[in-house]
Write a structure and sequence with these properties.
Elements lengths: L2 E4 L3 E5 L3 E6 L4 E2 L4 H12 L4 E6 L5 E2 L3 H5 L5 E7 L3 H11 L6 E4 L2 H12 L3
Parallel strand pairs: 3-5, 4-6, 5-7, 7-8
Antiparallel strand pairs: 1-2, 2-3
Protein name: STAS/SEC14 domain-containing protein
Length: about 120
Amino acid sequence: MFKSLKYSFCTINVYNSFVISSINEGFHLTPDKNKVLEEIANDYFSNNPFAYISHRKHSYSVDPSIYLQTSKIKNLIGMAVVAEVPLAKGNAQIEKLFLDKPFEIFSSLDDAIKWAKSLTADE
């Protein structure tokens, strides 16, 4: 399965066992935007486990309290951040403290995808 979903603030690509998001340049990601991820979890994964990959190609900010809601998505089994810029990696280290699920930081999208597939046994 592959589906590309476009929103006013991001693009999310849905695969069999994971999603990859790319947030728009300059956006401030707040907890109200978490509804999109909740809808995707229900619509595309139902009760099946999935991983979330944030591909940070653009500069944007995240309200870390979003992860308190994200942690409540029952079938979300892990999150990865792909960041090449040191500042983005540092921000992700702080964000990691707010998510009650496995959270890894990668420099390459391929490595994040391999990790996500290993969580869901989708090899």
